[in-house]
Amino acid sequence: MRTLHADTGYLLYRLGLRSGQLFNTFLQESGLRLRHYAVLRYLATCEGALQRELSARLGYDPSAIVGLVDDLEKLGFAERRPAPDDRRSRIVVLTEDGRAFLRDTDQAGRRVTDELLTPLAPAERETLHTLLARVAGNGLA
Amino acid sequence: MRTLHADTGYLLYRLGLRSGQLFNTFLQESGLRLRHYAVLRYLATCEGALQRELSARLGYDPSAIVGLVDDLEKLGFAERRPAPDDRRSRIVVLTEDGRAFLRDTDQAGRRVTDELLTPLAPAERETLHTLLARVAGNGLA
DNA sequence: AACAACTGTTGACGACACCAATTATTGCGC
DNA sequence: GCGCAATAATTGGTGTCGTCAACAGTTGTT
């Protein structure tokens, strides 16, 4: 009987859990969790996003986005602005504090991935990243 | 600002979630979940295991193992036997039904990983698996 | 004007990780 | 042998999370 470790899908599942845990412990002191961090990082790339866009791109349920943006607003890292053309929507934008937080934690964030990929040489990490990106495909990530 | 997809750790986290979801939908009709399947597959390799061993090797909390083995016993896929040398421990063994279940679902299980790795050529899948196994390291997986 | 579709929001439910405490048993020091 | 720390399985509680249903406000269509 072949062992479970022989299954690439299960390896991905296991390492995904470990990676998420590492990220969360890294974010623990800031009061945020990985989900908040993902939203912040996404907002930093697009200069304002609708909540439904956050939901679609990050893969979280729309109802989850509500709470995440609430938390980020409470911390002063993001804020909701009314959408000019559609009064149903609200545009979430990064505040200066939020941008500063990303700058301050960027280095520590890289260390998390470094720690996870310790067993691999730089070239191997590059290969792994390329393959994972291919698997992630066009969709979110 | 670099995008979130540029982070290998986050990619792993995301793909881990997707892989787990794929496995769970594949197992949905059988009433099991990925955690149960992991226990079954492990039991198939060792011909009987203590619950603390399952906890350590699969990375689940000991309290979680209790419920998982309960479910597997209820389905007739595994059973607890008293350990001869230590009356505290109980040895969990696969039943014939459990072994048959693994045989019947083996092919479908492979399809799950195949579906996940669709974008990759066979040689690339091999490379990915090797790298992931290296990252997983000596410990569990 | 009537109606379907969409956005954000709230609420509920189950699954799950994590930790503390308990019971039964074992092994160790004395 | 006796006392005591350590261990295996179990129970329970807490917080997080994914998923779905329902809702109000708004938009677009016809």
UniProtKB/TrEMBL annotation, chains A, B:
<feature type="domain" description="HTH marR-type">
    <location>
        <begin position="5"/>
        <end position="137"/>
    </location>
</feature>
<dbReference type="InterPro" id="IPR000835">
    <property type="entry name" value="HTH_MarR-typ"/>
</dbReference>
<dbReference type="InterPro" id="IPR036390">
    <property type="entry name" value="WH_DNA-bd_sf"/>
</dbReference>
<feature type="domain" description="R3H">
    <location>
        <begin position="88"/>
        <end position="141"/>
    </location>
</feature>
<dbReference type="InterPro" id="IPR039422">
    <property type="entry name" value="MarR/SlyA-like"/>
</dbReference>
<dbReference type="InterPro" id="IPR036388">
    <property type="entry name" value="WH-like_DNA-bd_sf"/>
</dbReference>
<dbReference type="Pfam" id="PF12802">
    <property type="entry name" value="MarR_2"/>
</dbReference>
<protein>
    <submittedName>
        <fullName>MarR family transcriptional regulator</fullName>
    </submittedName>
</protein>
<dbReference type="InterPro" id="IPR001374">
    <property type="entry name" value="R3H_dom"/>
</dbReference>
